[in-house]
Every structure is written in structure tokens, then in C-alpha cells.
Design brief:
The protein is 40% helix and 14% strand. The protein is of the alpha/beta class. The chain has one domain: TIM Barrel, CATH 3.20.20.100. Strands 3-4-5-6-7-8-9-10 form an eight-stranded parallel beta barrel, surrounded by six helices. Strand 4, helix 3 and strand 5 form a beta-alpha-beta unit.
Length: 342
Amino acid sequence: MLYSTLGRTGLRVSRLSLGAMTFGAGGGIWGEIAGLDRAQARYLVAAAVDQGVNLIDSADAYSQGQSEVVVGQVLSDLKLDESRLLVATKVRLRTGPGQNDVGLGRSHIVRSAETSLARLGRDHIDLFQLHDRDALVPIEETLRALDDLVTQGKVRHIGVCNFSAADIERVQGFTARSHRTGIASNQVYYSLAARDIEHEIAPVAKANGVALLVWSPLSGGYLSGKYTAGNEGVEAGRRTNLNFPPIDPARVDPIVVELREVAREVDSTTAQVALAWVLGRDEVTSVSIGARSSQQLSDNLGAMQLVLSSPQREQLDRVSQTSVPYPYWMQKFHDKDRLVNI
């Protein structure tokens, strides 16, 4: 396993981290995504830690809190302290029927942090993340609450998820002016099927020393190839009933075809090739992998050993390249006479 530094912190995290969205038995949407019990989760966590994974990612909303409960049980069963497995969780989504059981107001943040700590069975959260922005609450209130949790020792580092480049700049500006704790990371959706972050989010993250953690690097399993032509007879998965993240087969199926070709060349699986492509991007700090079985986990962890050649990466870059929005196509045009000798 290789490791990277989380932004401008001193925290070292594994290039592959374990997502706990499949842990617990929740209702609603979680009935399609989750379902792993304590014993099943314990087996996956033990296997991941054995391969050098040192970060597990959950959220207070996953399976109505049951994901955190199962993570806490597994940490206890395997006697995993923070020196062996760091814990990340999130706040923002609805956790109950009340008016204040959602969002990023001080009340919900503090209550969520304390509830998460109780479920996890730890005295601190290593990375406490905002699941998304909150259009109702001023970001200053949110950041003050997070800074207080860090000061109290309940949270080690803070991060965000799904923040735009403008959101990042706004947050960094406030924390710098007010001398509050800055954000260490932004967890984003990034894969061969979704390269949107390359235009603004990734450059702004780099300029501000914010680590990029990747969720759904296989686009909800679509890049494994099991939902495309040529894979009939193979058991599908949750995408059969839930198109999330949303995929346009007309655009993404050609990417899967190229993934299969590269996979044959390197004697690997399409999923491993897709993961190796993301891991090979300089802007990426860690990639979160989820699994419902030991076979899936083993396959995903195997991507760490796969290094694609330059021609193979270029092949995948070409087929997955999206149209460049304005003003980036104009800037790229004008950069030609400035970057030619660099």
C-alpha cells in the first residue's frame, strides 16, 4: 500500500480507503445500497487493514446511523485504534424528522458529532466532513462550530464533500481571516465516466492545499462492465434499480469497451483498470472503495498493484474526454504561445 499526506496536515492516509456505505441494514434507499451485518463487515475491514488500508469512511446518514454502529462494533472486535485505522464520517443529511435534524447549523453539527462518537465508540473523529453545503446556513456558523469541535478534541481534522471550487475559496478565505481551522480535504465524485472536477475543483484544491478524496471511482459499479453489453448472465447489482451516480450509457459504454481492451492487455479486470486510472492522477490523494463481498474487495485492492502504461492512459483519456466548457477552451487556446517552452 502507498500513502499520501492529507492536504496540509501531518496525517498520512492510504491511497485506497474503505467506504462503509454498504454497512448496516437501513430502510429506503439504503435497502438498495447497504445490508452487510457485523460479521460480514468485520471480515472486509480485517482484509482491508491487512493490505495496508488505514482509513474507513462512513456518515451519520448511512443506513439511518447503522453504518456507524457497525463500524464501531468492528473497531471493537478487531481492537483497531487510530494508529491502525483512522475513521472519517460526515454530517449534513437528514437524520430524523425534526426541523433541526438536518443541515449545517451549530445545533445539528454538535449533536451529530456527539452521536457519531457514541456509535463509533471513540473519543474523537479523525476526519469530520460536511456531506455537502447547506444553502440555508451561513458558512461562517458552520465553520465556527467545526473549529470548536477541533478545539474540544472531539475532531482531529475537518473536510468537506461535493464542494465546488467557489465553495472551497469561500471557506478558505473565512478560515484564513478568522484564524479558524481550515479544511483538509474535499471528497468528490471522480471517475473515467465523470471528469468534471478537472476544470475547476482540482486546480483550486491544489492551490489551497486541499486533498481530494474520491468517492464512486467505478461510478456505482458501472465501470466494472457488468451493466453493459457482452456481460449477460453475470449478476448485476444495485444499479438495476438505482441509477446513481447517474450514467448515460451512450457516452459511458464506449469507455467500458476500452477498459475491457486494456484489461485484456494487462491481464486484469475492467474495475482494476478503472481504479488504476484514478489512482494515477496526480491530484488524487485517496480513493474510496466499497464492497459487498470479499471477492469485490480483493479485486478492488488489487488495483494498487496495477500501473498503466502511458499509451494505455492516453487511450482511456481520449475515450473519456468530455467537452471543455467556456472559458477553459478559450484559455487553452491562448495558452499555446505561453506554455510551449515550459
